[in-house]
Amino acid sequence: MSESPKGAMKPRDLVALLDRMTVAEATAMDIDVDAIGRAIDPRKVGRSDLSTMLRAFHRLASEGADIKLSGMGADTFAKLISSASTEQVQSIMVDPDLRARILDEVFRRMSTHLRQERVRDLHAVIHWRLTGGAGEGGYDRYETVIENGTCVVNREMTQQAKVTITLSPVDFLKLISNNASAPVLFMTGKLKVRGDLAFAAGLAGLFDLPRA
């Protein structure tokens, strides 16, 4: 899918095209996930259109198309979240399959955004609890283990946590895309911390967060 057709097409029409696209059509058009993400301005589409676009990517990939959400750059994703309303981000998180795919992809990318100079001698285990999930206690749970300059992500809690962080998936997406402040979320009760508060306060500084 070249730049010129996307440039001439209204964002909502582009979303509708993706929603009805077949695998054969996607293959023939050579879909560029990042380019489409850059072409969509959430402020110019409806409440559910952002989730419809991401769901279309997920559907086409599951049906065999060579389309991966990992093809969307971190800065592009951050721009989408920055421009999206809370309702638009919520519409992504209410779909269990899409929610899981997005969260898995975000956590998978953590290792690539780790600031090596700040974690070289650090060993820390962080447990994340995202509300409204299908797991134990109504949470989606992730464990990140920072050790030897790497960040390993687990879905099972394998080690004792230095800190446990609880927040909604909407606020989590805003936080990791540099569209929300951890101190503000904490002060307003939207982010809860159990464990080492000082470490939690500096956690974002261990990562090179994308810029919208």
TrEMBL record:
Pfam families membership: SCP2 (PF02036)
UniProt cross-references to InterPro entries, sorted A to Z: SCP2_sterol-bd_dom, SCP2_sterol-bd_dom_sf
Native species: Actinokineospora alba
Domain SCP2: 106-208
Gene3D superfamilies: SCP2 sterol-binding domain (3.30.1050.10)
Domain of life: Bacteria
Name the UniProt record assigns to this protein: SCP-2 sterol transfer family protein
